[in-house]
Amino acid sequence: MAEALQKKLQSELEKYKVMQKDVSKSMSARQKLEAQVTENNIVKEELDLLDSGNTVYKLIGPVLVKQDFDEAKATVAKRLEYINGEIQRYETLLEKMEKMSEQQREILASLQQEYQKAQGHAVGKV
Question: Which are the contacts of 118, defined by CB distance < 8 A and separation ≥ 6?
Answer without folding.
Answer: 1, 2, 5
